[in-house]
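Q: Predict the assembly, please.
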Amino acid sequence: MAGKKMAIIATKGTLDWAYPPFILGSTAAALGYEVQIFFTFYGLQLLKKKMGLKVSPLGNPGMPMPMGMDKWFPVLFTAIPGMEAMMTAMMKSKMKSKGIATIEELRGLCQEADVKMIACQMTVDLFDFSPQDLIDGIEFGGASTFMAFAGESDICLFM
Amino acid sequence: MAGKKMAIIATKGTLDWAYPPFILGSTAAALGYEVQIFFTFYGLQLLKKKMGLKVSPLGNPGMPMPMGMDKWFPVLFTAIPGMEAMMTAMMKSKMKSKGIATIEELRGLCQEADVKMIACQMTVDLFDFSPQDLIDGIEFGGASTFMAFAGESDICLFM
Amino acid sequence: MAGKKMAIIATKGTLDWAYPPFILGSTAAALGYEVQIFFTFYGLQLLKKKMGLKVSPLGNPGMPMPMGMDKWFPVLFTAIPGMEAMMTAMMKSKMKSKGIATIEELRGLCQEADVKMIACQMTVDLFDFSPQDLIDGIEFGGASTFMAFAGESDICLFM
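A: Predicted assembly structure:
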C-alpha cells in the first residue's frame, strides 16, 4: 500500500479513548501508510510525558462493568470519590492480563514507525500546557497546516 | 453509485449513539454502497442478541430534556438511581411516537442489505464477550484486516 | 485547492464540541474547500438562534481543570447544581482571554464563507425543534441527500 495516507484528529483525553488513535495509527504505519495525528482539545493530554489518563463510567452506560459491578453500584455511586481511580486501575489491570499494550507502549510504536504527531498550537495556548511537559519529537501547528495533509489522505478520522 | 464503499468504525455502546452507524449504514446500502461496519470497544454492545442499550443524560448538557425536565431536575439528580432507566424509557417512547425504527429494526435492515458487520476480536477478548451472545452472520477480525477495506472506501467514519 | 470538498456530520451539542465543526468548517472554507455540515442529533443545538450551550466535566476526566479545581473538587462535587454553569462560564472566560472566537462568531464566519448548513429533518421532528428557533439560511434534509455530497468529498468527518 505504498503511497497511502492516514490522517487522524485525536480530541479525547481519557484512558479508553487514548487507544483508538494509537492503535489505528500504529496499525496503518505497519501496513505502509504515511500517518499524521493532530492532537487537539482534550487529545493534547495524549502527548504529555506523564499522561496520568483516567477512565470514567459516568455518563457511559455502554461500558461493560467487570464482575457485575453495575449490579452492586447504581449510577449515583459511580460518582463517589475514588470510583474513577478504581475504574482506571481495573481497566489497566484488565488490559495487562489480556496482553494488550499500554498507551505508553502504543505511543512508542507510533514514534518508532515515524507517525508524525502534531500538537494543536491553539489548544496548547488555551489550556496553558508547557511544551516541556510534552514528549520530544512532536511538531506544533494549526488546523490549516494539517488540512493540507488531510485533504490528500485516503482515510481521515475524527476521534 | 455502483462501486462506492463506506467504512464505519462503531465505538459507542449507548442507545443514542447506536443510531448513527445503523442509520448511515442502511442508508448507504440502500443507495448502492458496499458497507462494512467494524464494531470495537463499547460498540461491541451493538452486536449482542439482547442489546439492552441505555442512554444517560450525565455529562451531556446537549441532550434536549423532554417536558422541561432540566428545570425540575438539576444535574445532581440526573445521577439518582433509576434516572438512566427513566431516560431510556422516555427516549424509546419518543422514538416510537415519531415513527422512528428501533435499533433492532435498523440493525435488521443492515443485515438484509448485506452490510458486513465485523466484531473486533481484541475487544471480544478484552471484555470477555461470548461469541454466542452476539448475533449470527457476523465476522470476527482485527483492525489491520478492516484497514484494507477502509483504505479503498469513499467514506470512512469513526463514530 | 479548487474543487476540494469537506463534509462534516455534527452530532454533539455542548460548548466544547461545538468548536470542531465550526473551526474546521471555516478553516476549510478559507482554504477554498466547498463545505457542507449536516447537523443531527444533539448537534442540532448548534443551529439555534439562542444556543445557550454548556460544558460538563462529568464523565470527562480528560478535561484540564483550571486552577487545580480537580484537587479541590472530587468527582462527586462536579455533580452539584451550579457546577455546570460555573464550568461553562470559566471556559467562556478562558476562551475570551486567549482571544479565541466565540461559537457565534465562528458560526458567522462559516455563514459568510458559504458553508452549507443542513438541519437533519428527522432530528428536528424527534426533538420537536421549531424551525423558527433555528438561524436563517439553513436547509433541511435527510441523511440520503447528504450522502450524495459526502460520497464525493475529499474529507468526511463524523464529530
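Chain B touches chain A at residues 9, 11-14, 17, 40-42, 45, 53-60, 79-84, 122, 125-127, 143-144, 147, 150-151, 153, 156-158 (CB under 8 Å). Strands of chain B lie at 5-10, 34-39, 116-120, 139-141, 155-158.
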